[in-house]
Amino acid sequence: MIIVFVGAPGSGKGTHARRTAERCGLRHVSTGDLLRDAVERKTDVGLRAKEYMDAGKLVPDEVMMDLVSELLDSREGGDGVVFDGFPRTLAQAEGLDRLLAERGLKVDKAMLVDISEDEAVERMALRISCPKCGAVYNLKSNPPGVEGVCDKCGGKLEVRSDDREETVRDRFKEFRRQTQPVIDYYRDRGILASVRTSGPVDEVARKVAAALDGCGDAGGTSEGA
Ligand SMILES: [Zn+2]
């Protein structure tokens, strides 16, 4: 079972990808984790990726494909994967299909977690985080116990530069430009499911589960990965 999660910044895609992986017994793989892990393990491809990251550049598609290829071969935790934030471009989507086909696998479902630009801005504006330990709070749905102070480590909370309105709008437009072709690609193949991300997170999670028909396979039965 291979499921791909697609969603703009602020959509909560990461949360729902993680919850889906847990629920369905699949590996959760985010692009960030994949990169960090390869860099830490100092694999050849990890060292190549690090050069780009150190230079503040986007890691190119061919390096991403090598990372995913390594991941698919490692088989740690089984064949089933929930991809979170990958593929981000049409070239990556086509590359992923090639890598999967070589291994007798395919993308079973693509899950679009959909949000409007204004909603994303509103949501991100409510996010504050701890620069010390990385904890993230939401002023409305998950506020810290003491205003401006991290519950976990006592650090001073702040709005990340990534979450400021102008940055969110820029990231949103970049997401649309790069990722709309990916969404169309999966829609044309008839494997795109889509959920509007509004309302409480548990409610959205239920909608995601329903849209995936359990864990995403046509029969609605779980493979147990
Ligand atoms: Zn903290």
How is this fold's topology laid out?
Blueprint: E1 2-7, H1 13-24, E2 27-30, H2 31-40, H3 44-54, H4 61-74, E3 81-84, H5 90-102, E4 109-114, H6 117-125, E5 127-129, E6 136-138, H7 165-188, E7 192-196, H8 201-211
Parallel strand pairs: 1-3, 1-4, 2-3, 4-7
Antiparallel strand pairs: 5-6
How would you explain this protein's 3D organization?
With 225 residues, this protein is α/β, with parallel strands linked by helices. It has a domain at 2-116 and 172-211: 3-Layer(aba) Sandwich (Rossmann fold), CATH 3.40.50. It has helices at residues 13-24, 31-40, 44-54, 61-74, 90-102, 117-125, 165-188, 201-211, and strands at residues 2-7, 27-30, 81-84, 109-114, 127-129, 136-138, 192-196. The strands form 2 sheets. A 5-stranded parallel beta sheet has the order 2-3-1-4-7, sandwiched between helices. The chain has a two-stranded antiparallel sheet with strand order 5-6. The protein is globular. The structure holds zinc ion (ZN). Zinc ion is lined by residues 130, 132-133, 135, 150, 152-153, 155.
Which regions contain 5 or more consecutive residues with pLDDT less than 50?
A: 218-225
Strand order of the largest sheet: 2-3-1-4-7
Order of helices and strands: EHEHHHEHEHEEHEH
Annotated CATH homologous superfamily of the domain at 2-116 and 172-211:
P-loop containing nucleotide triphosphate hydrolases
Principal-axis shape equals globular
**What is bound: which ligands?**
zinc ion
How far apart the termini lie comes to 7 Å
Q: Treating each run of at least 4 consecutive H or I residues as one helix, how many helices? A: 8
CATH architecture of the domain at 2-116 and 172-211: 3-Layer(aba) Sandwich
Determine the fraction of residues in helical runs and give it as a percent range. 40-55%
Note the beta-strand portion. 5-15%
The fold-level CATH name of the domain at 2-116 and 172-211 is: Rossmann fold
| Average pLDDT, all residues | 88
Structural class: alpha/beta
